[in-house]
Every structure is written in C-alpha cells, then in structure tokens.
Amino acid sequence: MRILVACEFSGTVRDAFIKAGHDAISCDLLPTESPGPHIQGDVTEVLLEPWDMVIAHPPCTYLTVSGNRWMKPEYKDRFPDRQQQREDAINFFLACHNANAPLVAVENPIGIISSVFRKPDQIVQPWMFGHPETKATCLWLRGLPKLTPTNVVSLPEEASKRGRLHYLPPSENRWKLRSKTFQGIADAMAEQWGSYVNG
Ligand SMILES: C[S@@+](CC[C@H](N)C(=O)[O-])C[C@H]1O[C@@H](n2cnc3c(N)ncnc32)[C@H](O)[C@@H]1O
Known about the structure:
Layout: E1 2-6, H1 12-19, E2 23-28, E3 38-40, E4 53-56, H2 82-97, E5 103-108, H3 113-116, E6 122-124, E7 137-142, H4 174-179, H5 183-198
Parallel strand pairs: 1-2, 1-4, 2-3, 4-5
Antiparallel strand pairs: 5-7, 6-7
Bound molecules: S-adenosylmethionine.
C-alpha cells in the first residue's frame, strides 16, 4: 500500500500507518516534526501521482462559517483578498478530495464545505477514540468506510470539556498544537482503513 498523508507536518497519521506495516509518506509546506518519510513542498502536484490511499488535512482558515462576515462590503478595504482566498481554499480542498487514488479521506472542521460541496460522510470526536476532549472533525470519504469508535471515554466537567487544546495560552506554536491529529484517531485510521484495504 502506497499512502500519501497530505498537509501533515506532525507525522502522526503517517507514523500510525508505518507502524501498522504500510508504506506511508507525509507532505507539507513545513518540515516534518517527527523524522520519517516526508516531502516538504506544495502537495498539489503530488496529489496527481498514483496512490493507493490519500488522507488529507487541508487548512481550514478560509473555510469557516464565521469567516463569512469578513466578506461583507464594509470589510472590503481591510480584507480585499478574502473572497479569492476562500475560493482558493475550496479548490485546494477539492483537489485533495479528487486525488489520484481509489481511497481518499479529507479531514476538516465543520465549515462551509458542507454547503459548497457536500455534507461530510462522518463527524468524529476525540472522545470516541480515547481522548476526553471535544473537537468535531468532519471526514469526507471516497471508497473508505466510516471509522468505528475504538474507545469511547466520558468527558470531564463542563469547564474543561473542550479539552486542553482549547485553553492553550497564545503562542507561536498554538495553531500547530491545535491542528495535530489526535493519536487515537490516527491509530483507528491505520488499523481500520489499513486492514480494510488488505482484507
Ligand atoms: C490544519 S494543518 C494540518 C496539520 C495536521 N493535522 C498534522 O497533524 O500535521 C494544515 C497544514 O496544511 C499545510 N499546507 C497548506 N497548504 C499546503 C500545500 N499547498 N501543500 C502542502 N501542505 C500545505 C500547512 O502547512 C499546514 O501544516
């Protein structure tokens, strides 16, 4: 199995597949944080190469519903490129979904993709995979089955329900820490989608 993990700097999903015995490589504009097979650069051309499976985590910055307000006429002077940035982000999401592979999963938070493309096939939460935190993660699937929860855990008290990531103090690395795939979800992808293909 030749697997591309697109838009991943952390190596989390890539390494889960490698651990499960697959041939996986990550690609991101950033260097990988965890030593392993990685292409540092634009993934657009890489998506056109033949792969057995592509799992993609495209940026969501311009795909949020709350971002709609920045496109109102009164913000035109402050954010003149906003509309174009959103169109580019939608096209990049679709390029990931149309990757040259029979099996594709594209991950993103809840946002405008549900209305401009289609609703996700599944919404997973970290608490379904062993992490006592909430962070709705949508999966748009092509040729892959939905993930089955591996370890449903209960959430802590209301105050900290949103999880430690939500309360991280401002820092340069905050977005990185918040955007890393949860290990339990990465392991479930490798176990379930890896064996789905092998079987
Ligand atoms: C939301 S983060 C995903 C992080 C991922 N979940 C992880 O654990 O590393 C989106 C990533 O997409 C990368 N990215 C954005 N545009 C890209 C492009 N054209 N080619 C490759 N990577 C890109 C960014 O550098 C960023 O690391």
